[in-house]
Design brief:
Elements: E1 4-10, H1 13-30, E2 36-40, H2 46-57, E3 66-70, E4 72-74, H3 84-91, H4 112-126, E5 129-130, E6 133-134, E7 138-141, H5 157-160, E8 166-170, E9 177-181, H6 183-186, E10 191-196, H7 202-210, H8 212-215, E11 229-235, H9 236-239
Parallel strand pairs: 1-11, 2-3, 2-7, 7-10, 10-11
Antiparallel strand pairs: 4-9, 5-6, 8-9
The structure holds 6-phosphogluconic acid.
Length: 243
């Protein structure tokens, strides 16, 4: 059970993004560690967050202390338009003074099974850990219309419950392979932020908030950091069906 769970609702996606950016700044400043390890999510929602971090926090966040990882990545080259790394590189990483050694992308161009092992090893070598499980200071997550999070899709709760730190997943519609963190690492984070915007997410959000029976099949519902805090940052359209 998360130490604390909060739901924050905002009028517009830009307000969500700016609040999350402020909260990231605050967590970094409050951290008593010399480094701060964040796992980024992919998809389109993080774009506004990346812009807010550049526009509002370029000079206030000590970027040399920040290490960026990914919660999931598509098994594509880093130059692909599908790459979550490329999205962050173009909108955020190229626009802030962060050392390249602080960027730990998932090598989507590698053989998926081998990359899941390589990335797991890098996590174990670089992150602090509890009970030999890597600990992120913050994991950012989104939620798909089907209730997936990271790249753990409905019907694949076995990946969420895997004993491994990373898994190879397959997108149920496109067949695209993905590398994803598993629930073992996600639920071991100090802080987990869900960023959810848009009317098309309202049903899933309402099920997760109000209908445990329906929500249990959604991987996103199983995100519950054991020792950490869980915060939902949602815009009004996505929150419109919460009772
Ligand atoms: C990915 C993401 C994925 C995303 C959701 C929501 O690689 O696609 O990590 O889990 O967070 O699909 O995507 P949107 O933000 O585009 O709605």
């Amino acid at each position: 059970m998360a130490v604390s769970t909060e739901v924050k609702i905002f009028l517009k996606p830009k307000k969500v993004a700016r609040k999350v950016a402020r909260e990231i700044n605050k967590l970094i400043k409050e951290s008593n560690r010399k480094r701060f390890d964040i796992a980024l999510s992919g998809g389109s929602t993080p774009k506004k967050l990346f812009r807010a971090l550049v526009k509002k926090h370029h000079d206030t966040i000590p970027w040399e202390r920040v290490h960026f990882w990914w919660g999931d990545e598509r098994c594509v080259s880093p130059e692909s338009e599908e790459s979550n790394y490329r999205l962050a590189l173009e909108i955020l990483l190229q626009k802030i003074p962060i050392p390249s050694k602080n960027i730990h992308r998932i090598h989507g161009e590698n053989t998926p099974e081998a990359e899941a092992i390589r990335y797991s090893d890098e996590l174990m070598m670089q992150l602090q850990n509890t009970d030999n499980i890597p600990v992120f200071d913050l994991i950012l997550l989104g939620i798909g219309e089907d209730g997936h999070t990271a790249s753990i899709f409905p019907g694949r709760l076995d990946l969420f419950q895997s004993n491994n730190f990373c898994a190879v997943a397959t997108h149920p519609e496109t067949g695209q392979q993905r590398i994803t963190l598993t629930g073992k690492v996600i639920n071991n984070a100090k802080n987990v932020f869900f960023m959810v915007t848009g009317e098309n997410k309202a049903i899933r959000v309402s099920e997760i908030m109000n209908n445990e029976e329906a929500a249990k099949k959604h991987p996103a519902w199983h995100v519950d950091p054991v020792h950490g805090s869980l915060t939902w940052f949602i815009d009004e359209p996505a929150a419109s069906q919460i009772s």
